Amino acid sequence: MINTFSPQVVEMAELNNLFIELTSKNCNQRCKHCYIDFPISKNVKDFISIDRIKDALNDTKNENIEFIYLTGAEPMTHPEFNNILRLCLKKANVCICTNATFINEKKARFLKKVEDESTNEIVFKLSIDHYNEIKNDDLRGRGAYRQTLNAIKSLAKYNFNPILNIVNYYNEDEDVLRSEFNKICEKIGFEATDFNFHINKYHNKYKPVSDDFRINETGDFDCKNGRILTEKGIYVCPFLANDHRGRMGNDFKDFSKKMYLETDFCLTCSQNRNKMFGINLTLLHKA
Ligand code: SF4
Question: Measured from the CA of 226, which atom of ligand 1 is nearest?
């Protein structure tokens, strides 16, 4: 008998999460564990054009978009970041996924003003990977830990409710991570709940995966109700942005709703079981 392999398929139900990759290669950090392959130079100029974003917002006007996520590499390096933010806020709530280095008190005050001009809200996902400064900075670079804590403090001062985006690189017990991060937040005067901690498994791009892996279960993955716009086209999710395996089309006029889960990234999602990039809205409404 011939055994034919058919991978798990995810059919997108509704487009609720629109990810926009503002830059694929521009970041002021070089974190050891990042899933993106960076060029050696930190001065690559590969920013998405504002017209491409306008077209995407127009093409998705009949979709039920709950959140627009500004992602990268580092989205806040985009020279037109503020204009893009205002544009997106006209359409939906916006989540800024950032390494937090561009957020200080002055910036937080400015962002609150931008939010106040809109009927939608801004949410932040700030990268920090360990409650121990040395362990965190070993991954993210010297000073990263303090910069993120400073960003949390500044945002909380202006009544934002930032999410700590934690990659569990050291494979620790998640309850321990949550409780230790809670203590740190308390120390800096930020009252956190479960909503404020988004813990993900580490995707090790250097670890070879056997070609015949199988995904037997699916979870609440990002591809279920999201797509990402990049300068090159539409892709299934941030993990597979600009990767031919995740290409879904050229624009939102006509894009694919179907994804076969057969990549090494999908394997990490299946081990994680939840969204790796989108916000858990159930927790948002409880917070
Ligand atoms: S990497 Fe994750 S979100 Fe992306 S297509 Fe695979 S399962 Fe879906």
Answer: 3
> Could you give phi then psi for residue 164, rounded to 5 degrees?
-90, 120
Pocket perturbation via mutation, ligand 1, pick of 239, 258, 267, 273 by most ligand atoms within 8 A of CB: 239
CA distance 183 to 100: 20
Mean pLDDT of the chain: 93
Tell me the CA–centroid distance for residue 109 and ligand 1, in Å.
35
pTM: 0.95
Contact by Cβ (8 Å): 3, 139? no
Structural contact between residues 269 and 221, judged by C-beta atoms closer than 8 angstroms: yes
For residue 184, give the amino acid letter.
Answer: I
Which among 223, 213, 216, 226 has a CA at the least distance from the CA of 264? 213
In angstroms, the CA 98 to CA 101 distance is 8
| Length of the chain, in residues | 287
In terms of DSSP bridges, do strands 233-235 and 226-230 run parallel, antiparallel, or are they unpaired? Answer: antiparallel
Residue closest to 202 by CA, chosen among 123, 155, 153, 267: 267
Q: Could you tell me the two tokens for 60?
A: 């998705």
CA dihedral 279, 192, 164, 106 (to 10 degrees): 110
Tens digit of each residue's pLDDT (9 = 90 or more) over 170-215? 999 999 999 999 999 999 999 999 999 999 999 999 888 887 788 8
The 3 state secondary structure assigned to 221-240 is CHHHCEEEEECCEEECCHHH
Contact 76, 123 (CB under 8 A): no
Pick among 3.20.20.450, 3.60.60.10, 3.90.650.10, 3.20.20.70: CATH of 9-286:
3.20.20.70
Residue with tokens 């716009």: 229
What SS3 state is found at 200?
A: strand
Q: Tell me the two tokens of residue 267.
A: 């394997």
